[in-house]
Design a protein that fits this description.
- With 385 residues, the protein is α/β, with parallel strands linked by helices.
- The protein has one domain: 4-Layer Sandwich (Purple Acid Phosphatase, chain A, domain 2).
- Helices cover 22% and strands 26% of the residues.
- The strands form 5 sheets. Strands 4, 5, 8, 9, 18, 19, 20 and 21 form an 8-stranded mixed sheet that branches. Strands 1-10-11-12-15-17-16 form a 7-stranded mixed sheet.
- The protein is globular.
- The protein starts with 14 loop residues before the first helix and ends in a 17-residue tail after the last helix.
Length: 385
């Protein structure tokens, strides 16, 4: 985190040791994923429609039925965490109220920056001052479901804050709430909209998740997702953190000495391998958007609704909701960026001034020039830069 956790070493005070042990733990997590189901499926509303036009009453011609080609629509946001036990909101269900309508879509995706568990043994040592382990009660899974979320990401540096016990509790709680999870080792989340299947393949630079630093393994996961669904969405929790990390560097990025991947190279490789849309968060600040081979890449959606977990100062107050409609073959149909602002404490509100969109446009044009994705004043995302 940044700001409130500005000097945070995100659970990585002993990251070299944890990396050494990561392979063993990853095997346990892989077994967990297999036991709980590699790909969960959630059926959402249909986007396929038909219209019937009748001929003149004086004729006997049969009605003509026109069936529109199916599409899939999703909304996506960045990092969300609804507190940290024992610091919890008095009414967690109210936190999403200001953005509930703006979020609404058949598929709603977000990054769960923490765990849903009552476990008490965390990755942090008793005397650690720069280690953060986040947890809220398992019942909060229903808070996310009631807000409309259908897919939540586990590929980040906080999904293992409370070890295997925390991961197991989180996965179980999400499943009970009807939310699909993606991002644990080997895990692909599959959801439906009407007749179409959408696969979410989520990555982070850690062996305890789908590891984006292992490009060969990442490619195989994306190819497998392509065989499972009509549309493939790749998420990456990647890049440096903080208000100074708003630009895409086109190089390997580090935070507190930790390799956070090369978001630019990974996003391009993901599309080369078959992804139809790439979305991201992790830097805790918005980043630009670009077009690559006709597909949209959003390099960071920043922070979203939280409760006293993330900084709310300067550019870190800016957030957004990305709404995208794709065809049955994964082609971009329409897109919209809804500007959001985080108030003190972390609650998100729709921002009619469009400050976040203006900020993203500035970053996009500066980082990607002619390949930039441009947000119009009304929020529409243009197909050409």
């Amino acid at each position: 985190m940044v700001g409130r956790h500005a000097s945070k070493t995100p659970g990585r005070v002993s990251w070299r040791l944890r990396t050494a042990l990561g392979g063993l733990v990853a095997l346990v997590l892989a077994a967990l994923v297999v036991g709980l189901g590699v790909a969960n499926e959630v059926t959402t509303t249909t986007s396929s429609t038909s219209s019937t036009s009748s001929t003149s009453p004086t004729t006997t011609s049969a009605p003509v039925t026109t069936t529109l080609a199916p599409t899939v629509t999703l909304s996506a946001v960045g990092d969300t965490e609804l507190g940290n036990t024992p610091q919890l909101p008095s009414n967690p269900n109210a936190l999403f109220n200001p953005v509930r309508a703006a979020l609404a879509a058949p598929i709603v995706f977000g990054n769960l920056e923490g765990t849903l568990t009552d476990a008490t043994t965390s990755k942090c040592g008793a005397k650690s001052k720069q280690c953060y382990a986040f947890r809220v009660p398992p019942s909060y899974a229903k808070v996310y479901a009631d807000a409309g979320f259908t897919v939540l990401n586990a590929a980040n540096n906080h999904s293992d804050d409370f070890g295997v016990a925390g991961i197991t509790a989180t996965t179980t709680a999400l499943r009970a709430a009807g939310i699909t999870q993606a991002g644990l080792p080997g895990e692909i989340g599959v959801v439906r909209e009407g007749t179409l299947k959408v696969a979410f393949v989520d990555f982070a630079p850690y062996v305890l998740t789908n590891d984006m630093l292992n490009l060969s393994s990442a490619r195989q996961l994306i190819l497998r997702a392509k065989s499972m669904a009509n549309v493939v969405v790749v998420y990456m929790h990647a890049g440096a953190e903080g208000s100074g990390a708003d630009h895409v560097t086109r190089a390997t990025e580090y935070y507190v000495g930790e390799n956070r991947g090369d978001p630019y190279a990974f996003a391009h490789a993901a599309i080369d391998d078959g992804a139809d849309l790439v979305i991201a968060s992790g830097p805790h600040v918005l980043r630009g958007m670009e077009w690559y081979r006709g597909h949209l890449i959003d390099y960071s959606l920043g922070n979203f609704t939280n409760y006293e977990d993330f900084s709310t100062s300067g550019d870190l107050t800016l957030s957004g909701i990305l709404r995208v409609t794709l065809s049955a073959t994964g082609s971009f149909v329409t897109g919209r960026f809804i500007s959001v602002v985080l108030h003190a404490g972390g609650q998100a509100f729709v921002d009619p001034t469009g400050a976040a969109a203006a900020f993203v446009n500035q970053l996009s044009k500066g980082d990607f020039a002619s390949s930039a994705a441009v947000i119009a004043p009304g929020g529409a995302i243009s197909k050409v830069g």
